[in-house]
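re: ur question from earlier - yeah i can do the single chain one, its not a big deal. heres the input i used so u can compare w yours
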Amino acid sequence: MKKSNFMAAMVAAFVPTFSFAADLTVYTYDSFTAEWGPGPQIEKAFEAQCNCDLEFVAVADGVALLNRLRLEGQNTGADIVLGLDQNLIVEAKETGIFAPHQNPDAGQVAIPGGWSDEIFVPYDFGYFAVIYDTTKIATPPKSMAEFLDGDAALKIAIQDPRTSTPGLGLMLWLKRIYGDDAPAAYAKLKERVLTITPGWSEAYGLFTDGEVPMVLSYTTSPAYHMIAEGDARYQAAAFTEGHYMQIEVAAKTAKGAQNAFADQFLSFMVSTGFQDIIQKPIG
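and the output i got, formated as tokens:
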């Protein structure tokens, strides 16, 4: 190696690399920040409004998000956490890292049954469903019972309840339907599952790649394919027992409470600027 090249390499090795912190850091899940998800449009719209730098930090899914917050504790880098749901807010509050919102518009997103919470602000709700490929399943199940007792050769991809809010939602959906008999329903479900993924994106990708004829997703998922692709191949099975509702929420952390952009983001989140983006169906 030439001396000049050697010296250049030594300088590069010891001179620190500087980076500039974002004005607002939002922890969320990976399908939110994907290029086909709402995150990129929301980032652009909020930055235009606040004249600031918004950074999304993504993990696999909502439960994984809570697990990360538990590990980071008061040292979390998040100003805002977006993507927990109603099933996680009790545990989230127990971490002690969240601060009450100062958002007078927190009730603008109408939630069936109403919503009131001093910390968590709802920004979206939907219903879980078994999505099926009509080219592989001619007669979809019409109930959860029919699905569980169906052809075990027709498998489904689901998400891990330890890392994913849809996966946790499925377990609670079965608990709501079957009560004390839920363990027997879980055993039947095991026979229908091809694979369990860490998050929604991986499971849905397996489904659209044709690896599995069914996936746990949302009743709105087929709308994405109809609108974006003009394809009605994927449909949601309508269950007579009804479908489990998920309410997605966001909150500011104690760190975020010191950042004026955090409350500004929560206000933006319930405004039409955010809602017009989030209400566009995704896969």
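The CA atoms of residues 274 and 280 lie 11 Å apart. not sure if urs matches, ping me
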